[in-house]
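Regression test attached.
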Amino acid sequence: MMSFKIIVFAKQVPDTTEVRVDPIKGTLIRDGVKSIMNPEDKNALEAALQLKDRYGAKVTVITMGPPSAEAILRESYAMGADEAVLVTDPLYAGADTWVTSMILAKAAQIVGFDLILTGRQAIDGDTAQVGIEIAEHLKIPVIAYAVDLKIEGERVIVTRELDSTYEVVSAKLPCLVTCTKELNKPRYMKVGNIFGCFDRPISIFNNSVLKFDKNEVGLVGSPTKVRRTFTKGPKEQGTIFNGSADEAAQLILSKLKAEKLITEQ
Amino acid sequence: MIMVYCEQRNGELLNVGLELIGKAVELSKNLDGEVTAVVCGNKITHLSDKISQYGATRVIIVEHPLLEKYTVDAYTEALYQVISSENPDILLIGATFTGRELGPRLAARLKTGLTADCTNLEIDPESKLLLMTRPAFGGNLMATIICPERRPQMATIRPGVFPLPKTDIQRKAEVYILTPKLSEEDIKVKIQQIIAKVRKHKDITAERVIVAGGRGVGSKENFELLEELAELLGGGIAGSRAAVDEGWLSKDLQVGQTGKVVRPKLYIAVGISGAIQHLAGMQESEYIIAINKDPEAPIMKVADLAIVGDWKPIVRRLIQQLKQTMDIQEEKIS
């Protein structure tokens, strides 16, 4: 199955657990916040590498972003990816999920694929839309929220997690699957690969490769626009108490009684 | 016209669709006043009465044997056909797992924008555009999104974000029954098996009291103390994304933008700093108590009672005192 082609879509994201809001200025404090490969995209890459280990496959990682997003492609090489593509063009800046998925779908068509894997959602936007929208642009089936994945003949068989059920579903390849962190535990980079990963070539897909009209991409082509951003205005300050544990517990208890939150017989 | 997709499972409507009808009725006062509810399935005509009571002016029942079980392929195609003929200005979808799958597939087919997990919806008085507000950037910032040209303007909204509206049995909506064109070949992803999840605990959105823990709780074992407190108060436990990511709690107990939105009578936040992502899931609670070492933590700003200190001795003392109070009450009764 060496001719079996897997595309993994990955995104570089700020480690949002480290982002904080400046309480006075109401702006984001981004200084010193490191960029990482979106965690569930890493699960998708791991799933692809496991299929490669088992059956043989060519794994291509594609990311879209500024030139610095190259870092996660180097990391992908160090984990075991075979090829890497950076989709980057100033014209693409400000793209919403609809335009992003349209651009990535075209990149996928150029690379070619039997299976596409991507994370369920990115931690900076949490929309969970891009993967599913890529599938619609490509007119291929989509299976979201994978917790288990295997290939049987020409079909992919996935267990996916929904609110109150698990579903075992299957679809004929080609197909796109969005992966959750329950799917696997991503491997570490291999030391041998780390040395080599900086010399490996990265294909650049800019707009001279993808050939979109400038009016259909980026902020201009995006159906949705951000009208404004803001931090939440503070609610009226409640009671603040700073004292001993004993006093604190008594205060809580008295408030619970006053608010009728514990039943007084 | 505003269209609301009402999800049903085994012939029962999910509350989120009804919550969205309530919001749509409110929004429609600034538009043409029309709210159309759409429900897909097989043999579900009985649902129209209930939907009418919540305030929709029209109900479209989309029935087909191939809609018996939810599949993204059949449901997208059925809704695509309805939307293409009805041309709503706005389409609202509950952000359940299936809604968050159906929404993007449908938006891409309709070539329109979609805003996920909105926490507020308004109509701009001048442009009449839908203002869709959601937490962004890991929940550290709020963003108001518009979809100025393409239609419909689509949004998904988590269950519990808007209250369930009051019903009125007098209300009667116009009801239409529609059979979409679907064939077996449209369904590319085949369901082989459906396995019910075993629930160890109650759905947190139904809890009256929630004791929630975050990274500051420190370990899985420490959650046993929170569980004891929750039990004494007749409620359940929950946690922040950090606590779930650490593996201390299962994902269905996560409160926040990517978890569940809760509005209990009492919410006690223990060792939770309160990123907007978490606040978005709990700030509508009626009474909030926060216990945190850091007096500057954002959770302390939304709390009705903010206790600065080490949570463990405080919770231990509180458990003790609650038990004493209950003993006394039992003595009074006997």
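Expected vs. actual: identical. Chain A has a mean pLDDT of 91.
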